[in-house]
Structure formats: C-alpha cells, structure tokens
Amino acid sequence: xxxxxxxxxxxxxxxxxxxxxxxxxxxxxxxxxxxxxxxxxxxxxxxxxxxxxxxxxxxxxxxxxxxxxxxxxxxxxx
Length: 78
Known about the structure:
Blueprint (H helix, E strand, L loop, with lengths): L2 H31 L6 H10 L2 H16 L11
C-alpha cells in the first residue's frame, strides 16, 4: 500500500477537525463581534467532504487492508 493510502484517512479526519475549528471561530465571532459570518458555509463544506468520492476512497482503503494479505498485491504478476 502506498503512502497516500496510508495517510488518507488521517488527512480526511484532519480536514473535518479543521472545518469544525473554522466553524467555531465563526460562531464565536458572530456572537462577540457581530461579524456576520455565514455559518451554513461550513456545513456545505461538511457535505463536500463527506461526498461519494471520499466515501468510496475510504471504502477502497479499508477493503485493501482487510481483504489482502500484507505482502500480496492484487495486480502483481510474479
């Protein structure tokens, strides 16, 4: 499994956490400083991150980890 597959789930989780941090900052800035930050924009980002492409990539990674032995790559013809 290549490096991108190993770290893809970690990256996706970090994106969700980063989006939550931005939403929290916007929420508190709206309350304290009346900045008029559109809180719905973060939820649109959540829908984008949890779209079909990301879910398919996560399914592919999990299937690769569970259904293949460690040193047996499905496309190697030795």
